[in-house]
């Protein structure tokens, strides 16, 4: 007979791999954000969706819920710091915590620098750079309090191979790359940081470029070579599902044929 202190208790352990993660996603109304939300929700994550178009967010939330998943949404313009903060608050009020924020909202107004499209430059800086910073600002106090968290920034191969017309767009994305690395180093294990740089992805993205000539050239190229948004969503799932002590840093995902 074993003495009482030797009785083996069932081995109950906090298992980060099985935890249903709470994931906030900006720019969830279409493209990569939408595909990522659907895949994460299908894998059991609780997704908190932000973008400006609430009709698209409502129908995505409905689809996820009808498929048995959990989702909440809120109109979010990432150029407003208060909107980013209230998206994170929604995660806390709806699901009790925030495990991951995906700073995905982005725009590209591509133009030669000599065309001096200051309005386009400001739009990209406001959404791609300041919007990402506002997401980080909203999430970090929660991550510090919780002692864990994960920031995923959607960057771009435009920041890796610099080409004409993409100067300011690439600059905003490379600023995010730099900030991601600083965040990683400052984390000291308290949160994880992942930067994902897609190449041409089949989304409405290039169709939103104002300059007609550049829009049609890039849309045609995208039609020829773009990879599905699900390829990026799969990488997000990979980064998120690593054990807490494993940080997936930079991932580049592009069509095999892309220059
Ligand atoms: P989409 O145009 O489909 O998605 C962009 C998303 O950003 C939309 O959901 C849009 O929602 C949102 N968004 C834009 N402005 C704001 C804003 N002010 N506040 C909140 N949300 C905003 O394109 P993708 O899915 O392709 O783009 C997602 C990310 O991927 C972007 O950061 C982009 O730079 C990056 N990327 C895309 C590539 C591609 O080839 N598609 C290549 C490399 C990087 P709404 O309009 O409803 O606000």
Question: What can you tell me about this protein's structure?
Answer:
- The structure is a single chain.
- The chain is of the alpha/beta class and 259 residues long.
- It is 45% helix and 16% strand.
- Helix 3 (81-95) runs parallel beside helix 4.
- The strands form 2 sheets. It has a 7-stranded parallel β-sheet, sandwiched between helices. Strands 7-8 form a two-stranded parallel sheet.
- It has a single domain (22-252), classed as NAD(P)-binding Rossmann-like Domain (Rossmann fold), CATH 3.40.50.720.
- Helix 4 (118-146) links the parallel strand 4 and strand 5.
- Mean pLDDT is 93; it is low at 1-18.
- It has helices at 31-42, 54-66, 81-95, 118-146, 167-187, 212-225, 229-240, and strands at 22-26, 46-51, 70-75, 100-103, 150-154, 192-198, 201-202, 227-228, 250-253.
- The structure holds NADPH dihydro-nicotinamide-adenine-dinucleotide phosphate.
- NADPH dihydro-nicotinamide-adenine-dinucleotide phosphate binds next to helix 1.
- It comes from Dyadobacter sp. 676.
CATH architecture: 3-Layer(aba) Sandwich
The CATH superfamily bears the name: NAD(P)-binding Rossmann-like Domain
- Main structural class: alpha/beta
| Total tally of structural domains | 1
Low-confidence segments: 1-18
| Helix and strand run | EHEHEHEHEHEEHEHE
CATH hierarchy, class: Alpha Beta
Tell me the distance between the termini: 71 Å
Instruction: Count up the helices.
Output: 7
User: What does the radius of gyration come to?
Assistant: 20 Å
Shape: globular
Strand content: 15-25%
Summarize model confidence as the mean pLDDT: 93
Q: Roughly what percent helix? A: 40-55%
> What is the CATH third-level topology name?
Rossmann fold
Bound molecules: NADPH dihydro-nicotinamide-adenine-dinucleotide phosphate
- Give the tally of β-strands: 9
Strand order of the largest sheet: 3-2-1-4-5-6-9
Largest sheet: 7 strands, parallel
């Amino acid at each position: 007979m074993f003495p009482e202190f030797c009785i083996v208790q069932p081995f109950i352990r906090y298992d980060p791999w099985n935890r249903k993660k709470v994931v906030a996603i900006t720019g969830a109304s279409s493209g990569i954000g939408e595909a990522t939300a659907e895949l994460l929700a299908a894998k059991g994550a609780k997704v908190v969706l932000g973008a400006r178009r609430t009709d698209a967010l409502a129908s995505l939330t409905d689809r996820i819920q009808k498929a048995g998943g959990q989702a909440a949404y809120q109109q979010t313009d990432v150029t407003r710091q208060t909107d980013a903060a209230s998206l994170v608050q929604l995660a806390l009020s709806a699901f009790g915590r925030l495990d991951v924020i995906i700073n995905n909202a982005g725009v590209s107004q591509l133009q030669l620098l000599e065309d001096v499209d200051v309005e386009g430059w400001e739009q990209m800086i406001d959404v791609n750079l300041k919007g990402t910073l506002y997401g980080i600002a909203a999430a970090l106090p929660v991550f510090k309090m919780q002692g864990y968290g994960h920031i995923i920034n959607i960057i771009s191969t435009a920041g890796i191979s610099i080409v004409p017309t993409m100067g300011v767009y690439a600059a905003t994305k490379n600023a995010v790359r730099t900030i991601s690395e600083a965040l990683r180093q400052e984390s000291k294990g308290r949160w994880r940081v992942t930067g994902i740089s897609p190449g041409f992805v089949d989304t409405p993205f290039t169709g939103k470029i104002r300059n007609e000539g550049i829009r049609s050239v890039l849309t045609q190229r995208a039609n020829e070579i773009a990879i599905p948004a699900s390829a990026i969503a799969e990488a997000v799932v990979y980064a998120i599902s690593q054990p807490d002590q494993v940080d997936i840093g930079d991932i580049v995902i592009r069509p095999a044929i892309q220059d």
